[in-house]
Amino acid sequence: MPPGADIGIASAQARAFVGMAGSVLERSNADGFRLCAHQFYDGDGKKRERYLAGPVGTPETDAMARALRLAIADSKAAATSLRLLGREGFSLVDAKTYATLASLCNHGVFQAGGCASVPMPTVCS
Q1: Per-residue tens of pLDDT for the chain, all 125 residues
Q2: d(C-alpha 83, C-alpha 106), whole Å
Q3: What does the pLDDT read at residue 117?
Q4: What is this structure's pTM?
Q5: Closest-CA residue to 7 (of 89, 97, 90, 95)
Q6: How far apart are the C-alpha atoms of 96 and 115, rounded to whole Å?
Q7: Using an 8 Å Cβ cutoff, are 36 and 59 in contact?
Q8: Rounded CA separation 29/86 (Å)
Q9: CA distances from 114 to 11, 15, 101, 104 (A)
């Protein structure tokens, strides 16, 4: 990926992850219904899981899982670049500050363009 490409990818996404990007899992409930879930750590470092779509194997569920997996991969690529920038002396925010900014962005506070200038990894809505 060329330098700066991850910033363009992140700013093109619809929503910012408030915590760690996490992963997409397949789960089954007590009735045997197979579904996709998004497991992640929130801004406070607590492990969370949310229903994504189901049943597994339908075109809609597979598309949603694929889109979230791509957003997670983009987020991890951006995190790698951000770590490198931090090592070179650039200022980075701590996890709680990032979670606050991501939440504000997700609620439209930066609709005039401020969100696009901050490389925040994001998820589909």
Answers
A1: 444 444 444 445 567 787 788 999 999 999 999 999 999 988 788 999 999 998 999 999 999 999 999 989 988 888 888 889 989 999 888 878 888 888 888 888 877 765 554 444 444 43
A2: 23
A3: 47
A4: 0.67
A5: 90
A6: 17
A7: no
A8: 42
A9: 10, 13, 11, 11
Length of the chain counted residue by residue: 125
d(CA 27, CA 6): 31
Question: Which residue, 121, 103, 105, 124, is CA-closest to 53?
Answer: 124
Q: For residue 46, which amino acid is it?
A: K
Tokens read off for 55: 């049943």
**What is the C-alpha to C-alpha distance for residues 8 and 47, in angstroms, rounded to an integer?**
28
| Residue that has been written with the tokens 């506070």 in this structure | 109
